Amino acid sequence: MGKNLVGNHIRKLRFNHDEMTQQQLADKAGVTRQTIVALEKGNYSPSLELAFRIAHVFNLPLEEVFFYGENTKK
């Protein structure tokens, strides 16, 4: 089993959201840009609260931003 089974579509969502920068997303979600970098690289699983905040920024349900399972490197 991989060490991080939570994946996300944050990079693609930022691009499709008027090419939002990592810093803009970080500011809206209340975290540092380094946190967004780690999330996008798959090196960090967000808290449930942060996951909801990021989904809220994109106005999407949680499961359209994050996914859980073995195939997180897509």
Helix-strand layout with pairing:
Blueprint: E1 6-8, H1 10-16, H2 22-29, H3 33-41, H4 48-57, H5 62-65, E2 66-68
Antiparallel strand pairs: 1-2
Word description of this protein:
It is a single chain. With 74 residues, the chain is mainly α. The chain has a single domain (6-63), classed as 434 Repressor (Amino-terminal Domain) (Orthogonal Bundle). It is built from five helices and two strands. Strands 1-2 form a two-stranded antiparallel ribbon. The longest helix has 10 residues, at 48-57. It starts with 5 loop residues before the first strand and ends in a 6-residue tail after the last strand.
What's the alpha carbon Rg, rounded to whole Å? 11 Å
What characteristic shape results from the CA principal axes? globular
Give me the CATH fold name.
434 Repressor (Amino-terminal Domain)
Helix content: 40-55%
User: Tell me, what is the CATH class?
Assistant: Mainly Alpha
CATH superfamily: lambda repressor-like DNA-binding domains
Question: How many helical stretches?
Answer: 5
SS class = mainly alpha
Widest beta sheet: strand line-up: 1-2
Brief account:
This protein has helices at residues 10-16, 22-29, 33-41, 48-57, 62-65; strands spanning 6-8, 66-68.
